[in-house]
Amino acid sequence: MDVSSFPPAALGSFEVLGACPHDCPDTCSLVTSVQDGVAIKVHGNAAHAHTGGVLCTKVSRYTERSYHPERLRTPLKRNGPKGSGQYVEVSWDEALTDIAARLKTIAARDPEAILPYSYAGTMGLVQGDGMAARFFHKLGASLLDRTICAAAGAAALEYTLGGKLGMKIERFAEADLILIWGSNAIASNLHFWRHVQTAKRGGAKIICIDPRKTETAEKCHTHIALRPGTDAALALALMHELIRHDWLDHGYIAQHTLGWEALKERALQWTPARAAEVCGISVEEIESLARDYGLACKAGKNAAIRLNYGMQRARGGGNAVRAVACLPALTGAWRRPASGLHMSNSGVYPTDKATLQRPDLLGGRTPRTINMSAIGDALLAPASATFGPQVEALVVYNSNPVAVAPDSGQVVRGFMRDDLFTVVLEHFKTDTADYADYILPATTQLEHWDIHTTYGHTDVVLNRPAIAPVGLARSNTAVFRELAARLGFDEPCFADDDLAMVRQAFGDKIPFDELLAKGFASVAVPDAPFANGGFPTPSGQCEFFSQRLADAGQDGLPDYLPNFEEAKPGDLYPLAMISPPARNFLNSSFVNVKSLRDIEGEPLLEMHADDAAARGIASGDTVRVFNGRGSYRCAVRINQRARAGVVNGLGVWWRKLGLDGNNVNELTSQRLTDMGRAATFYDCAVQVERAA
Ligand SMILES: Nc1nc2c(c(=O)[nH]1)N[C@H]1C(S)=C(S)[C@@H](COP(=O)(O)OP(=O)(O)OC[C@H]3O[C@@H](n4cnc5c(=O)[nH]c(N)nc54)[C@H](O)[C@@H]3O)O[C@H]1N2
Ligand SMILES: Nc1nc2c(c(=O)[nH]1)N[C@H]1C(S)=C(S)[C@@H](COP(=O)(O)OP(=O)(O)OC[C@H]3O[C@@H](n4cnc5c(=O)[nH]c(N)nc54)[C@H](O)[C@@H]3O)O[C@H]1N2
Ligand code: SF4
Ligand SMILES: [Mo]
């Protein structure tokens, strides 16, 4: 196949295979229909089993996003106060020359005063941290701790199972019992939901554990609406019941686990009554869940847990994931391929990060690491012996921190600093772009090469350009290549083109011809990875007790850690607020696509009828949601989705579309989780009142 024929010639109709770039476990294989150089429609690839020819609503509107009238088409330079959104068009040459000069001056003083900030706007290995990582490594810039999403769960899984590995997602179709724990699959993991439906048709029982009655919870047989941040208590009480009824696999425990006696002692302190109190649910709900799970496992049936990120965005998120991840080893559920647990399989890929990202270009330097989940504090921190130099320059790509990072009042104060030089590579004038000194127009997935791994299934998916760049947009790689040239970086890797980098991602570990021909290729992963133990932990066992955690001064056993902000009745801020994503947005992406925004309506707080009545609030009222960090006004909807004591502020709206020019992250905090130094978005106490 002639790879130089992408994007296809200007005239004629073509179908181009691509990959969905978004931060979603499904990583769909896309087919873009192109007519005379214009992308007409993006479809799901029917030949890719995980995609099954179906895309979510968001990405089936991808052309609406790519050709959006507000798409950035030229580089822009700020000519008004920070945050005013006033810009003038400049040439690429002018922008890049000035940016290179500014970075060079700062780097000459101290390269660690420069901070790259990026996340998963695209999950592509090349447009993500490919050329950008090479550039910042060579520069010696500060490193970024990429903790905003999954770091607590990832660390917890690593401590317990040894890595991000678990059941194959397609095996859920054969399960007899599925626990969907901390996941709104219909919204955020649609292709997994197909397997749940298959299992359900085959007679499986489906149980959802989620404080919110989501569209997923509604379609399950049972919904357990626990209080946010209490999953570890629930999991320990389940262990209590498994022990009490002897629904255990003693052979598996003896052969393949570490710390059983200590865990048993801990779990026996967690009676269902005690956990029910903590979780705000009934003893019967706990006993019945334990019976379903314990009896299924004891009978050798397939009991599968889909553990997702909802539970780990609170103080004890790592402990919660550890507690749940112990369950399949206690019951021997790991023995069968359609049984066990899946959180992420992203650990299976043989990605050649050393070649892609070139950490060797650091040349022995060890720059400090700045935590992206506390970017507000980092931008406002003065130089000090512990912090290092003040951040003088920020280069943002693939992320919209002003909207998505916690405690956005503080984030905005940081971005407002007049002495901070900010460059934002973007598709749109996002909330973050409004604070940039330069905004550089970036290509979308339809316009560049890339290659993708995923955290849901176990294939590699190739993305090839379907159309030429819109306007003067340039790929992230092109920008960092140009900046490298202007800074005189002459290592050959800075001249690699995107296709060369796509090939470097896996070298010969994935047959590139197959990728080119089909658009995807599978990685060999064992069915039932822990059927015979073989956990990639230091002990080779499933580590109920973790010596590594104990050495780090933490509890070696999983335990329940109350939220930082417990939100008890009578407290100044007595309501717990969670802010899970709206179904038709992807974090803050797609909020500006009108057809999708119209489905979501407006920024919204869901509230239980009792909490509303106590405050004289009626559905449709405008309410003020507030705590010590800030205040946010939006419409309220009183419905069954919210449990008593918990409000749901669906995210992540663009601040500039909010009633007061802000969003729900005005209220969330920068405090970090027990493991992984991750964000605690769902550990947030608020008060709500009717707004005037
Ligand atoms: N449509 C859509 N899809 C997405 C995204 C999106 O924004 N929109 N985001 C993508 C990204 S970046 C990610 S990380 C994933 C996230 O997807 P998930 O891993 O599913 O995580 P969340 O959506 O954060 O939360 C999932 C569910 O957990 C619930 N939850 C909140 N707190 C708790 C708790 O303490 N315990 C329990 N048991 N449940 C709790 C929430 O109510 C929510 O329904 O989805 C991806 N897919
Ligand atoms: N309150 C609350 N806040 C949350 C969450 C929550 O559940 N509640 N979820 C958190 C989670 S899980 C996550 S992962 C983070 C996500 O935070 P982000 O990773 O920042 O995700 P997005 O908001 O989708 O912003 C991605 C941006 O990247 C841009 N982009 C996409 N592709 C490209 C490209 O090729 N080049 C360039 N230059 N730009 C590109 C998009 O236009 C978009 O503006 O948000 C977190 N924030
Ligand atoms: S966002 Fe997820 S479900 Fe939607 S197309 Fe992309 S990978 Fe598929
Ligand atoms: Mo995420």
Brief overview, please?
With 692 residues, the chain is an alpha/beta fold. The protein has 3 domains: 76-149 and 351-447 and 469-497, Rossmann fold (3-Layer(aba) Sandwich); 152-343, Dimethylsulfoxide Reductase, domain 2 (3-Layer(aba) Sandwich); 575-690, Barwin-like endoglucanases (Beta Barrel). Helix 12 (272-279) crosses helix 13 (283-298).
Structure write-up:
This protein is of the alpha/beta class and 692 residues long. It has 3 domains: 76-149 and 351-447 and 469-497, Rossmann fold; 152-343, Dimethylsulfoxide Reductase, domain 2; 575-690, Barwin-like endoglucanases. Helices cover 29% and strands 18% of the residues. It has a 6-stranded mixed beta sheet, with helices on one face. Strand 18 and strand 19 (459-463) form a beta hairpin. Helix 3 (92-109) packs across helix 19 (476-486) and helix 9 crosses helix 13 (283-298). The longest helix is centred in the N-terminal third of the chain and has 18 residues, at 92-109. It is globular, with a radius of gyration of 25 Å. The mean pLDDT is 97. Bound molecules: ligand MGD (2 copies), iron/sulfur cluster and molybdenum atom (MO).
